[in-house]
Amino acid sequence: ERDGRTRERLVCRSDLRMRLPECPRAVPARVPRGFVDDLPIIAQPLDFLGVNYYFRFVLREPRANTEPQGLSAMLRFAGIPVEVVPNAERGNPVTGFDWEVYPPGLRRQLERVHERYQPAAIYITENGATYPDQITPDGRINDTGRQRYIETHLEQCALALSSGVPLRGYFAWSLMDNFEWAEGYSKRFGLYHVDFQTQQRRLKSSGAWYRDFISSR
């Protein structure tokens, strides 16, 4: 959480409060020269604040005699002496990206951003999951994991709304299977399946559920 809050504050405090946050030792060295002079220009009123949420990181004090790997090594380099707790140790389900499915994290993030920065409106600009889609012989794609992921995160949105968060919209990621920056076409997030050879689109069961859900509201 310390890592996430550092990145959140670097953006939001600069944009909304016209000052830099307290940062770990490695962060100031990466801030462009003269950035502080730009704060009066950057810190203009926002029409809305966008929040992307997929999963959480759980951090702990580093164990003795362990060599940090991946994100843990990056955090250590940035002066944050923690390590990431592996998903396998927490026991929650994961997506096809090995990202933990943890819907309450979305509500907590929304409530924290609302309390700290008081934006006029908040939109969830990305939220979704990748799973290995299987096409049945009759052409259907029953991606119940993705449907459940979106449904449980929307439930957390409702809780955030009831607590006073000015949540104005939700954008599922994504409408169609797309090109992922690090994984290319191998990870599918879409509510529509795309055959990248023929460009044929098929509505997945998650897309049909989402269509019916939002049309009933």
What does this structure look like?
With 217 residues, the chain is an alpha/beta fold. It has a domain at 46-55 and 92-215: Alpha-Beta Barrel (TIM Barrel), CATH 3.20.20.80. It is built from 7 helices and 7 strands, in the order ααββαβααβαβββα. The strands form 3 sheets. Strands 1-4-5 form a 3-stranded parallel sheet, with helices on one face. Strands 2-3 form a two-stranded antiparallel sheet. Strands 6-7 form a two-stranded antiparallel ribbon. A hairpin with a 6-residue loop joins β6 and β7. α6 runs parallel beside α7. The two termini are 34 Å apart. The mean pLDDT is 86.
Quick recap:
This protein is α/β, with parallel strands linked by helices and 217 residues long.
Beta-strand segment tally: 7
Main beta-sheet strand count, sense and barrel state: 3 strands, parallel
CATH topology name of the domain at 46-55 and 92-215, in short, is TIM Barrel
Mean pLDDT across the residues is: 86
Topology as H/E string?
HHEEHEHHEHEEEH
- Order the strands across the largest sheet as they lie in space: 1-4-5
Structural class: alpha/beta
Please state the overall shape, judged from the principal axes of the Cα atoms: globular
Instruction: Look at the structure and give the CATH class of the domain at 46-55 and 92-215.
Output: Alpha Beta
Search tags:
about 35% helix, alpha/beta, TIM Barrel, three-stranded parallel sheet
Q: How is the topology of this model organized?
A:
Layout: H1 2-16, H2 39-42, E1 49-52, E2 59-60, H3 70-77, E3 83-84, H4 87-90, H5 104-117, E4 122-126, H6 144-162, E5 167-170, E6 192-194, E7 201-203, H7 205-215
Parallel strand pairs: 1-4, 4-5
Antiparallel strand pairs: 2-3, 6-7
Helix pairs in contact: 5-6, 6-7
